[in-house]
Amino acid sequence: AATITLDAVNRGWYEDVLPVPLTNGSSSTNNYIAGQLFGFESRNWFKFDLSGVSGTVVLATLLLDNPFLGFFSSDPSETYTVFDVNPGNVGGLGTSFSAATFADLGSGTSYGAAVVTSAANGTTVSIPLNAAALVAANAALGSPFAVGGAITTLNAFSGVQVVFGSTGFPGSNDRTRLQLVTEDL
Questions:
Q1: In the chain, which ranges are E strands?
Q2: Which string of b and e fits 156-172 if b means at least 16 CB within 10 Å?
């Protein structure tokens, strides 16, 4: 077995009310906030290049740095869920926005989830990916692989519920990685 850790080649977030992406991999902010700010929902995404990966992916973990003030909520915890991204939407992540793409980032096949609290501030949130994600990653070998993320415990009556807030500030070292374990079968 071999362990491979890939940095995201592109990452960002979309807000449900804006007609353009707020950030992308070429942006100076590179933020990947997810959650709700005063009634506006944000969902994030991460794109990885699997062109150099060989063998069969048997384990996968998404590793997302959460800054010192990354979790902020009126609730004691939030559930952050990782979803598949429709292959037709992968190429446009960070360059174009549509309501369908926004919806795609927080729906479809769940690849895994993590319950995040203030204890995760200043740490890396580790999200083990499930069998559906392994099938998708193996199908994507040799090409881009993307995942979307959303808080699935939002309360419409709370003002702020966010994870991965304060990411992407100039000079920050926020890392977004996909760790794969592969085997030659």
A1: 2-7, 10-15, 34-37, 40-49, 56-66, 72-73, 78-84, 110-116, 123-128, 144-151, 160-163, 176-183
A2: eeeeebbbbbbbbeeee
Evaluate whether 16 touches 4 at the Cβ level (below 8 Å): no
SS3 of residue 113 by DSSP: strand
Q: How confident is the model at residue 58 (pLDDT cuts 50, 70, 90)?
A: very high
Token pair, residue 148, equals: 């979307």
- The DSSP H or E segment spanning 164 is none
Would you state the structure tokens that stand for residue 184, as one six-digit string?
């030659």
Which of 62, 24, 29, 53 shows the shortest CA–CA distance to 138? 53
| Token output for 137 | 């990653």
The model's pLDDT over 60-114, given as tens digits with 9 standing for 90+, comes to 999 999 999 899 999 999 999 999 999 888 888 877 777 888 899 999 999 999 9
Task: Compute CA 106 distance to the chain's CA centroid, rounded to the nearest angstrom.
Answer: 10
